[in-house]
Fold these 3 entries.
Entry 1:
Amino acid sequence: MNNSTIWHRLAAIDSRILYLALLVMVAVPLLRPIGLPLVILDEVRDTLALIASFPEGSVVWLASEVAATNAAELRPMITAFARYLVMQNHRIIIGGFWTDGCNLARIWLDPIFEEMGAVYGVNYVNLGYRPSSTSVLDECRKDIINAYSDRDIAGRKLSEMPVMAGVTKASDIDYLVCMSPGTPGTSTYISAWRATGEVDVIIDCPTSGMYTTAGNNYQAGITKGLVGGLNGSAQVEQLIGYPGKAIRGMDAQGTGHFAILLYLIIGNIGYYQIRRMDREAKEHAGG
């Protein structure tokens, strides 16, 4: 039996080498995106078109319902949307009811706002974390300033900020963009503001695990926009012309999947080729 064929040599490769090759194929796009093609969904195009349809200076509540556990999906999402909202010259009010949500938004978004020339207190404000989403959102229906004790995340007075001019209650918010990993999330705002008529336009940005439920709400017209998961974030980045972590992540997934598929194809071909050669060798020996 000939054990020196290419199939036998491939079968003898140390598995650690294969894992190393897979690691390289995943790591390279994370460091330098290669721009694998993306299928842009109609719902993503329609969502960005909806945001662009609002007049400059519209008030948008950016719900930073994020945590370290969902940052891989939602950090690219919220940064892409924050960039696009500034590009459209909308006023941004950042709120959130996950413990780390507003702090993470400050870490992730402030450098983007600074880079784009957005001024804190004029173009955007971060309200900071408040416990009990239900009671706070209910109070916001009557008085947002009072609901947040007239203080932002750093204790500065909201009532003195130009970004809050004319924004006294939830019905003064033109639309809401919500990062939604679960509860609190989009369903919280639907119950508190959409069902009561305060905010009609809600754009849902769920994690992949929440995408099915989010899709049902979108198809039913309960939400007016939908961008889901890392793939949706990558589509937004491509459409607005700012490739970032989402596109890198999708490139890494693509190259990783390609490598695994290649391993499977070569491995199966090699397995049957070696079996064929072994069988032929036995028949030859017996003959």
Entry 2:
Amino acid sequence: MAEIHPTALVDPRAELASGVSVGAYAVIGPHVRIGGGTSIGAHCVVEGHTTLGRDNRIFQFASIGAAPQDKKYAGEPTRLEIGDGNTIREFVTINTGTVQDAGVTRLGDDNWIMAYVHIAHDCQLGSHIILANAVQLAGHVHLGDWVFLGGLTGVHQFGRVGAHAMTAFQTRLAQDVPPFVTAGGNPAEAQSINAEGLRRRGFSAERITLIKQMYRLLYRKGLTLDAARQQIDALRGELAEADADIQLMQDFLATATRGVVR
């Protein structure tokens, strides 16, 4: 059975799996579902049509599943879906989606969300992401797997950050950051590839070298974006294990709508 502190307010219609713990003065709304092993800290509010998977840890004072900060929102039953094994620290705010988008805000698995982060309506986050303190995501932002955003990074609405990309402290993102790229500054500029992150994830030296080639074509050869994409495509077959990395980059660049950080 769930372990619920006597001062917590849990709506009887909420669905709490075995092994859930709810701390003092927490509030759980009627449309909330929480998977086994998840802990909800003291003074947290979990509301809206929110689903939490297994083994998440929500620290005190977080606000999960509140209505979107969008003046067009008219009370529709939009959703928030959070996967398994996420850590969500103090004063984090995560809002549900809007009907103007997919109607759902999503977080994958094994994400590390530090204090004071805001994840706005309709954001789509992958897995293994780290958001350092006070990162601010506007509505409709998409983050790929293994993204790391440095403290106080701000991402413009509809912005995208590709898998394995990274930002420095206090970065302002008004354009998309391609996969594997490290960006920093206000406004953001590309600085390098996230080589250390790739090494930690088991990328071979040869694979990292090919990713560096893609980076040079994008940022160091003075090519237009279309010309860089053509030359990146020509790298296929040089290293079989890197063909998926080339495809990831090409798919991202082909769908950039806000422009790419250059």
Entry 3:
Amino acid sequence: MDKKNILTYEGLKKLEDELEYLKVVRRKEVSQKIKEAREQGDLSENAEYDAAKDEQRDIEARIEEVEKILKNAEVVVEDEVDIDKISIGCKVKILDCEYDEELVYKIVGSTEANSLKGKISNESPVGKQLLGKKVGDEVVVETEMGELRYKVLEIQRAE
């Protein structure tokens, strides 16, 4: 049995849009490149043909990957998220106790995680420790560089 892919509605929409783009636009573009490369003659020494075939293989692999994610998707309805405790789909403000710095994260499923955009996975060390916690709770996260301590300051529904 495949693992459930937990997604927010935003993440689901993004994947559906990507799948549509890959199937409708990118497939057509690549098949046109392959057609043009074939028209150049000898395929054994045709770099454009090889590159287009590689690109086609990558696109088909990504289509398959996205379809598999969507097939096993479980969507979190963010408007219904319980904000008494931290769960997937909520936004959390925490205090890094060592650096006295406030951090804001959105807790998402692993397929949507992007730390540069403030989205951390429920499966990440920090995300895992935060799940189920309430405002005022402290968590300790074990990392290779030692312990990190955080205090939960605020829990909100994500926009």
